Structures are given as structure tokens and as C-alpha cells.
Give the backbone structure.
Amino acid sequence: MKISVIIIAKDAENDIVDAISSVTFADETIVIDNNSQDRTAALAVKLGAKVFPYQSKDFADLRNHGLKKAKGEWVLYIDTDERVTKELQASIQNSIDDKSKKLSAYKIQRKNFYYGNNEWPYKEYLERLFKRAKLKGWYGVLHESPKIEGDIGELDGFLLHYSHKDLSSMVTKTIEWSTIEANLRFEANHPKMTWWRFPRVMVNAFLNSYLKQGGWKAGVPGVIESTYQAFSMFITYAKLWELQRKTNEK
């Protein structure tokens, strides 16, 4: 078996069909279902995917579980809100078929879309395609990173990422993720939250999104997204402040 695709999914019935449909070139598609309460698992099975229920708040743990289930020589990770383009598919297939290349992994350029089809100016390069034997595992509860043995190349084509579809889903995700982020900072003995730390982290988040990533080029969606990043940082650090205060009151 040449290539396995691994998808981590939770309550993704509106995305899972398009995600799986974009990777029909794979020899097997594995869905790690993180306690979905909707039709995610049923839809994945209908499309021929192998679905494995596995509940965890640790994203590295979820990706590692998928790795254990994969049988392909190569593994490709995508999220439910990502799509593999035809150009990327061709690049993947050509790269793994080329025996002259002695690479252990490949970076993929990801193009982000916010609030529908509004393209974000900043492009990311993410390690997502791995020779299974050379991927030693994933590390990190939320912002997970792979540990790879060997050299890394780059693929042509784009991975399309349809993130932040609407404000309601964004707020829901922030409430969930900010709790994890706050706990990680708390466990790392983050300095005591004082009033001036809040505007500092919020301004930095806005400027990174609006200026460094070029959000200003995106018009109104750029303003909304950059402001939202500042809001997200506020929620995270407010929860950190709450954790610190509860500890001091004991």
C-alpha cells in the first residue's frame, strides 16, 4: 500500500464529504472520530473511509493514533476543512513515485480562506506528507509538531483551507481552544497577569494578522479576522488570569 490519508474529525458532517472526496487517489482513508455527535462517522463510512472512534483533547495524541492505524508507505494528514487540489495531488503522486528522491517528508503550501471564499494573503508551509517509517510521532497538545528523521522537501500545488466560516462557529472554537491554551500557560508557570499584559498581547495579535500577514489586503474580512485574533488572545489570557486568581484564593 502506497499512501494513507489521515483525517482527524469532530462534528464535521458539513465538511467530511468534501475532505474525503479530495483524496480519492489514496489507497486508504482513515478518519479518527473524536467523539462526534453528528453524522460525521456515518458519512465517512459511506464514502469508504476506515473510521476509528478515539476521544482526546490532545491533537498530537489524535494524530499519533491515526499513524498507528495507517498501513501505507506514506501518510498524508489533512483536516476536515481542508481540500487537496489536483495540482497538489499530482505533485504528491510524482514525488512518492520518484525513487531517486531520498526525502522523508514534504511541506505543503496552504492557502487559507476566511468567511467563505475570501482568500487570506499569507500562505503557510506545513509538514503534512511523511514517509511513515520516518515520522517518529507528533508532539504538542494543541499546536502539534511532527518529529521527522531525515530531509524535508516541498510540493507544488496548494492545500485549500476553509477556516472561520462564520462568527458563531469561530466563537465556539475559541471558547474550547482558549481553555486548553490557558491551561498550558498556567502549567508552564506563566507570569502573573497584570492589566498591561492584556493590551500588549491583543495589539501584538492584531498587528501580526493585519500587517505581518497582510490582512489589510483582504479588505473588510481582514479587519474582522485581525480584530478577532486580538479577541481570541483576550479570552485566552482572561482565562489564564482566572486560573491564577483561583489558585491564589486557595
Observations:
- Residues 115 and 167 are 8 Å apart (CA to CA).
